[in-house]
Amino acid sequence: MDHKKDGMRYPAIDQLVSKTSSKYKLVIGAAIRARQITAGDPILIDKPNSAKPIGIALEEIYENKIEIR
Question: Which of 2, 23, 53, 69 has its CB 3.0 to 4.6 Å from that of 37, i.e. a possible disulfide?
Answer without folding.
Answer: 53
